[in-house]
Design goal:
Length: about 80
């Protein structure tokens, strides 16, 4: 195979697999937060705060994977 094909395969796998985890994580966080709010609506403030904090950490992992994919695409 040609080096360009292998490089694009590596970029696609890096982006696809690297963004799969944060996407699933954000979905699970949203689902769990809605369940918690349904059970205990008075705890809206702490639930929302924790949901946003964990969501931001999840998205940071996705951004790292995106940066690595962009760097791989630019090299060689």
């Amino acid at each position: 195979m040609e080096i360009g094909v292998m490089k694009m395969l590596a970029v696609g796998l890096t982006a696809g697999l690297g963004l799969l985890g944060p996407g699933l994580g954000l979905g699970i966080i949203g689902y769990s937060a809605m369940q918690a709010l349904g059970r205990n609506p008075e705890a809206r403030g702490p639930i929302l705060t924790n949901m946003l904090l964990i969501g931001g950490l999840c998205e940071a992992i996705g951004i790292y994977a995106l940066i690595v994919a962009i760097i791989l695409a630019m090299v060689v």
